[in-house]
Amino acid sequence: MTLSADLARARSEEDVKDAYLKALGLSPKDYSKGLVDIQTDAVWFEAKGSPAAPLLMFAQLLVYVRSARLRGEPVPAFLAVIDPEKGAILQTEVALPVLEDANIAWPASGSAAGKELAAQIAPYVSAHFTTYARWVAMIGSELGIANAADHATLFFADIMHDGERSAYASVGAQLGTFDGRPAFTLRGASGFLPVTNLRAYNDFWAIYLRPPEVKHRRWLLERRDSLLPIDEQKFKGAFYTPLHIVDKAYEQLLATLGEGWQDRYIVWDMCCGVGNLEVKHSNYRNVFMSTLDQVDIDIMRANNICLGAEMFQYDYLNDDVTDFGQIDYSLTNKVPTALRQAIADAKAGVEGAKPILVLINPPYAESGSGIAKGDENKIGVEKTRINGAMHELNLGYASKELFAQFLIRIRQELPNSTLAMFSTLKYVNAPNFEPFRRVWRGKYLDGFVVHSRAFDGLNGDFPIGFLIWDQSQHEVIGDISTRALDRTGALIGEKTYVVRPTTSLLNAWISPPQARGELALPLSNALTVSRNPRKKLSCAGSVGYLFAGNNDLQNAATGTCLTSSIYTGRNGGGSYVLPDNLCHSAVIFAVRRLIRPTWLNDRDQFLQPSKPLSDEWKSDCLVWMLFNGSNLTAGADGLRWNDREWSLINHFIPFTEAHVGAKGRFESDFLVRYMENMAFSSEAQAVLDEGRKLWARFHATDFPRTIRDELKLGRPDAGWYQIRRALQAYGDPELTDFDPFSTVYAALSAKLRPMVYDLGFLPE
Q1: What gap in Å lies between CA 509 and CA 609, rounded to an integer?
Q2: Which of 110, 551, 687, 705 could form a disulfide with 507 if both were Cys (CB 3.0 to 4.6 A apart)?
Q3: Do both 250 and 271 map to the same domain?
Q4: What pLDDT, on a 0 to 100 scale, did the predictor assign at position 729?
């Protein structure tokens, strides 16, 4: 029976769930049911037994996502809503910004999500079917074009035409007629591309007026980049640099290079796009602009942008690069003679030669796991000729980054130039760029950082730097101070980015013990077995596993947890916890989770402490870890993996059975023995006292089977994760009040938070 037939027979919410589970071929080991109706590693489903508004269902799911993030638990890549009539799916990343909206009052439970919340999240999750998307669906998809990026070029040829003549000169494609029907010509393609579905074509242009008003045409042409597939945007660097940020860049260049810099310097932008970085320049005869796409050149010429500048199509990472990584302009003869001469004169130090300024906003793509998935654009990153030369330099991870590839060619081709570049800050302080920094050097002159959301097409909240470097001075990159601008370009303060060797970072503070035991149960959450993980070995004497992913604040919020077996839910990083490294493990856990990441600090690296740690600080961190939402330790039976049943032993119970009224014996009393001679601050003791009350309430509660099964409550040694989730799911506010606990835990957090900086774990 088909999905539609099963849904037609559905009489309840459970019927709808079962219909989708059957259609998706999911077996019980692949999913769980609970507060989230169907939960897999990749997708969370909200189901309704009768037709419901998708926005209301997405609102309910986002309540669960928000709660999971606050607890430090993983969230899925996708959210799906289903009812008997329809289904919808949403990429979780698209909706994450709504969780940071301070104007939204989030309900305590998903079931309380109503129309008011749905209205507030609508701008973030509504699917706006754009004119361009409709054009592709009705017209573009019928043209037989393999490259999706060509649709953008054809769309502009169509929209800038009134049916008789074009409002613009060619922008890479033209609209005409062939055999009495509309047909396109496309640069690089032979023959005509006739419109095959004339009815759909006429229906489309019966809805929309073309060409757009004159005042809108240039804006539309400049924004062609936003219509490119997102991976191609990253590969080509097609992220529109907003003009108000360009203004700030020119102010910075004036302050750094001095009056008259636009007359004194030759400027080359190797990935100019449609020229936003150059439109503010006052002397175009000093400007050279190259770009991967000829269409960008056509657009600028059609708009009379940067008249007087020399523009040319050029693949900077491949053109004129020999098999030995040298530069030979005769290979393509694309580089203008005047620019070649300027480069030669600058290299030779010819008296009176104009210095060269590289002004650039390069692409941010990287290769990696996408290659295994057949991602052609990322394969393009991996296969550039400059990338091949970088492998010879043993630059490691940096070889995968397009902007780093630009820097390596610029270093070779223009060694005495001044570089003014928009980019992420990886090359400044990321640990995996340390080999790159040994090769690429320069004197930092000045710069600013700006919120990534100032740039169209960039997701996430992180700093984009506009940093100016003198490449003739081969200085090792050290700490850099910048001005900080918000997304509007307003000055909000200053920010220093600290550069330290990887040996001084927090993730090198303890040496992971050797894993030489039997196979270890791989987890992706407290009670969830990882799917298809690499098999890992256990460590003799371990009491848990501290997962600590990448060493920056950006990753710490969602990349830190304590589990009862090895955690393999992300890209690796972490250590087995033993009695002799528990103290350090608790400190690492607390330091990584105490500070909330912002767009400005999220690339900050955690450092090893610069001052001695007091016993009080250590015990405070231990208690803070034990009662944090990312403590995912658990006691459970019946976890199935590798064709056998597994159990989890919880070693992180800070109380005896008598203290909490347990009905059975705890398999481990490790933590009670570990803590018995420790002294606790008043703040930590208050957390222990309130935590014990919740632990006791858990053991005094007779939970229904649904909660017992979901959280695997068949053993007395349940962990904090199970206790908290069970009490919340049971939902009896008269018997279980979390407010007193939350108050004392917040007080302990407030005490510890400033000490993260005072003790040197993070730069001020």
Answers
A1: 9
A2: 551
A3: yes
A4: 87
